[in-house]
Amino acid sequence: MCDTCGCNITDGNRHLLAPAPRARVAGDSPAAILEGLMTHNDRQAERNRARLDGHGVLTINLMSSPGSGKTALLEATIRRLQGRLRIGVIEGDLETENDAARIRALGAPAHQITTGTACHLDAHLVQGGLDRLNLAQLDILFIENVGNLVCPASFDLGHHRNVTLLSVTEGDDKPAKYPVMFRAADLMLVSKTDLLPHLEEFSPERAEACLRRLATRAPVLRLSARTGEGLDAWIDWLQGERRHYRQLLADRQTLRPRVEAAGRRLHARPPVVTFRPVAGAGA
User: Fold this and answer.
1) Domain annotation covers residue 126
2) Using one digit for the tens of pLDDT, what is the confidence trace for 228-254?
3) Taking the model in full, what pTM does it have?
4) Which whole-number Å values give the CA distances from 204 to 111, 131, 272, in the listed order?
5) How many separate domains does the chain show?
6) Residue 118 binned pLDDT confidence (cut-offs 50, 70, 90)
């Protein structure tokens, strides 16, 4: 996908393509340039993570296709944890501040990143979001990635855990169809379960079986942000991850997310241009 659409380049890393202080080596290949962008991303991710660790802010990357309920989940989580944990959000979308406005309406700080054409966030974009949040006043930071079941799993943002949502409206075979995304998950949430009575074709058991075939032991939780069903288990998972994270920090360690090697390879290949003959050409 990204080897053809060019989404490797974002407003966060575009400056890295500008001529360096030394002249760019003649003959630099597109593959070398893209691999260089991934290397820069990883370095920035480590700086982001060190910054978050300095404030003890557990950071969760939420990934899913568009419309799977990420923002609704955040709203329900903020309401449930209000007065117990301080939550901030970085929102990623191609356009609009709609989701950030929904979060701010609940009294939580939120920064919107609009990517324009890029179908994922990267570490440089997230750095800009961190600059606009008071990390000293946060316990948990959520990064709501751009809705996309491929590219977000390929980038380390400096976060600690990946959570992938699978809505019951999407089809229970999505883990099989999009293995890069679901292999990267530290937790899979089956969302919108209140709709299951109307969607008999979706089987949570089949969805989990597809996940297990990817050789991952990531836990699976079912919930509905609308009714609150399953929300307690989600909060328990968050609390457990935060306790584990705090213990690691006390031992001068940290948490790192899964970043799929297959996804990284997609972003380290030059764009492929395919020429198709036009009917009647050369006649």
Assistant:
1) yes
2) 999 999 999 999 999 999 999 999 999
3) 0.83
4) 33, 39, 37
5) 1
6) confident
